[in-house]
């Protein structure tokens, strides 16, 4: 058994249901987690059912009554302690994320660092949940607006970021006064259980209510239950566009709130004025990081014809230097895909690209197990496959002559998450960031499409879902706005000068 599994208390798991203070087996079947690195069984747990879900709702409702009355800075102190707990467990949790999901150890540790960073952000935020004051048109009246917690926040997370995306939601939701029910991906249950174990010590030592953080290891029926239950005020869902549309339809049918972080099909425009020394490493990391299994992965490279040959040669050389293998080995850049279904999607996309006129410049091969070669394909046009998001390390190269053509290619996809331009021309940079430029939620200049910082709001437009998580004022999605008017005078003037004499 791996040492980090013992360090995280995962050697004898017999539960899939946890309320932060109590753990027990779910009412469903056994679920075995396999490492995509070597297909070795790591540990098993049990799936929760809708019966478990109903119990979780009751625990969460009870916890919310108590938690919402805790002053926000005190809630921030709890999150600060959680951040400290993650600091102490960073190495072990980062190794588990790497082993269970397949991303490189550096990326696994970086994901845990994101938890720590969002905890720090949330602590400061707990003293800055600002409202506004405004002048009333009526004498001796004061108007202001304030924010209150929503209640229960449901979190549905994906396998590719098994712990960080949960924390973006949970830490902000908690300082805002909400309680959380978390349904992680069935492909990475152990990483979720480890996180719950880490924060449970903080919950217990501070005598916080059971149900502040509830974890349900379950299948699609748990996600459906979160989406349809009237007591779940907000559903934050990360995953495929197909899943997001189903969540949105269900939640909207009961006029609930949802926050969606869905697919991406991100591009980098490389102009004739680009610094290729900056461009190459940004493209390589963006395209092959997490083996292409990021929503912010660079999937399209839109290159000016004058620099295409040089850039392509440099990229092929860089790809030839990538080390592929065991993600726990710090020397390796690229780990495995999550499972054989992902490998099949990789091969199908390459076959489609070639059939649509693409030329493979590098890669295109399946290695042993779930490992594949990162692939570069020169495409004659932005065909149907190029507009499709394939969760694998496939980079399509497109060529342009005119700036307007580049922007058209950038925006001519259903997704709208992340984008970038590499240029030393200030006019090109500003045009890219203008209303006539990138239509994505994230638009960068001279940095790649992935690696967003937690201080900025994260999310995208179109089929990416329109949600915003993490920094900036994304906290407002986890609260309800209330406008207040106070009359401190001795008369009752009405708005708009209306007279109503009795």
TrEMBL record:
It holds the Pfam family Aldedh. CDD domains: ALDH_F7_AASADH (cd07130). Residues 29-483 form the Aldehyde dehydrogenase domain. One of its GO terms (molecular function) is aldehyde dehydrogenase (NAD+) activity. Keywords: NAD, Oxidoreductase. Homotetramer. Belongs to the aldehyde dehydrogenase family. PANTHER family: ALPHA-AMINOADIPIC SEMIALDEHYDE DEHYDROGENASE. This is Aldehyde Dehydrogenase. The lineage of its organism: Bacteria, Pseudomonadati, Bacteroidota, Cytophagia, Cytophagales.
């Amino acid at each position: 058994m791996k040492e980090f599994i013992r360090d995280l208390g995962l050697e004898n798991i017999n539960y899939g249901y946890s309320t932060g203070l109590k753990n027990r087996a779910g009412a469903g079947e056994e679920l075995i987690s396999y490492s995509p690195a070597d297909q070795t069984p790591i540990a098993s747990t049990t799936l929760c059912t809708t019966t478990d879900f109903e119990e979780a709702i009751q625990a969460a409702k009870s916890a919310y009554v108590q938690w919402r009355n805790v002053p926000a800075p005190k809630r921030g102190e709890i999150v600060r302690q959680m951040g400290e707990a993650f600091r102490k467990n960073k190495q072990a949790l980062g190794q588990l994320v790497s082993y269970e999901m397949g991303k490189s150890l550096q990326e696994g540790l970086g994901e845990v660092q994101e938890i720590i960073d969002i905890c720090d952000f949330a602590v400061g935020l707990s003293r800055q949940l600002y409202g506004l004051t405004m002048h009333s048109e009526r004498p001796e009246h004061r108007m202001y607006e304030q924010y209150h917690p929503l209640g229960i926040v449901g979190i549905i997370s994906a396998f590719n970021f098994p712990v960080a995306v949960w924390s973006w939601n949970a830490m902000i939701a908690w300082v805002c006064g909400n309680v959380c029910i978390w349904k992680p991906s069935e492909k990475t249950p152990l990483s979720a259980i480890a996180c719950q174990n880490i924060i449970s010590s903080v919950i217990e030592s501070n005598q916080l209510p059971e149900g502040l953080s509830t974890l349900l290891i379950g299948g699609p029926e748990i996600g459906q239950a979160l989406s349809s239950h009237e007591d779940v005020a907000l559903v934050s869902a990360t995953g495929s566009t197909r899943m997001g549309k189903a969540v949105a339809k269900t939640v909207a049918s009961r006029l609930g709130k949802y926050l969606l972080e869905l697919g991406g099909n991100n591009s980098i425009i490389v102009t004739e004025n680009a610094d290729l020394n900056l461009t190459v490493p940004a493209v390589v990391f963006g395209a092959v990081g997490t083996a292409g299994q990021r929503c912010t992965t660079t999937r399209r490279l839109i290159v000016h014809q004058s620099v295409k040959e040089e850039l392509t040669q440099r990229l092929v050389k860089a790809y030839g230097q990538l080390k592929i293998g065991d993600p726990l080995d710090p020397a390796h850049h690229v780990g495995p895909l999550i499972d054989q279904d992902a490998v099949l999607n990789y091969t199908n996309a390459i076959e489609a690209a070639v059939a649509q006129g693409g030329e493979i410049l590098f890669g295109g091969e399946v290695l042993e197990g779930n490992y594949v070669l990162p692939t570069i394909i020169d495409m004659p046009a932005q065909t149907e496959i190029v507009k499709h998001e394939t969760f694998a390390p496939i980079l399509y190269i497109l060529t342009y002559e005119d700036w307007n053509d580049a922007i058209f290619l950038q925006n001519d996809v259903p997704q709208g998450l992340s984008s970038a331009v590499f240029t030393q021309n200030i006019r090109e940079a500003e045009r890219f960031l203008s209303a006539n430029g990138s239509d994505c939620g994230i638009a960068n200049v001279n940095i790649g499409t992935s690696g967003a910082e937690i201080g900025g709001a994260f999310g995208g437009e179109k089929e990416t879902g329109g949600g915003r998580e993490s920094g900036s004022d994304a906290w407002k999605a986890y609260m309800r706005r209330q406008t207040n008017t106070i009359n401190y005078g001795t008369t009752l003037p009405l708005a708009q000068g209306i007279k109503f004499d009795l």
